[in-house]
Amino acid sequence: MSAAVRRRRVRLAALAAILVLTGPAAKAADLPAALADGGTGRVAEVIDGDTVHLADGRSIRLVGIQAPELNPGQADVPAQPHARQARRALVDLAAGARVHLGYGGRRRDRHGRYLAHLYLRDGTWLQGELVRRGAARVYSFADNTALVDRLLRLEQQARRADRGLWALDRYRVRSRAGTHEAVGSWQIVEARVRRAEVVDRRVYLNFGRDWRTDFTVTIPPEARAAFDAAGLTARRLEGRRIRVRGWIESYNGPQIEVSHPEQIEVIGK
Known about the structure:
Residues 1-28 form the signal peptide. The chain is of the alpha+beta class.
């Protein structure tokens, strides 16, 4: 065998090895049409139930969900119930795995973290699987609502089955009366809109007899166009039973101000 032939065979063998190593292993999962391709990376560390660090140095916040806070690095702040279980769920799914990033809105938060949906090579959607297991709740922003409808359906299934955090009283869906004790926290509330009013272009959804003390949901003027386009007008919401999610603040009683339509689900007449 000539030296030239040997060299050619060595080069072909090396090329074949490269293809074996980078072919299936590097194959990225197909992304939904709603997402822009963000490339791939390998998970080097799972920080908590909704945050990972990649080997290339990027920090990824799994957008669209919120797992119970582990509060790492804050010795004086205890972990929230089910926080360690949520992190364990993400470790089991993604530790050391290659993931495909998909962007559905704003790409980075104020902490510099990338806001992405993550998919494993076999097509497993990490956000969807965590919500399905009851390891996280759906948590969206006005500038990042892609796939929220799918997450809400998975959340409902987990909630009905009392999976994961849904078995704990802390994360139960609140009634109108239960909002008073929950001021200052992020909650999901189900109640019937007793009356809907528009005052100075702001929509007020009142759930009790006394708007000064009862639970209220408000839609600010700058957000009304999006709600109207989604069919969530004051007139259509009055008398309907809804599920709303957000931070409960105290202003003439417990109040949630919503910024985008995905925060409200109409669940009954």
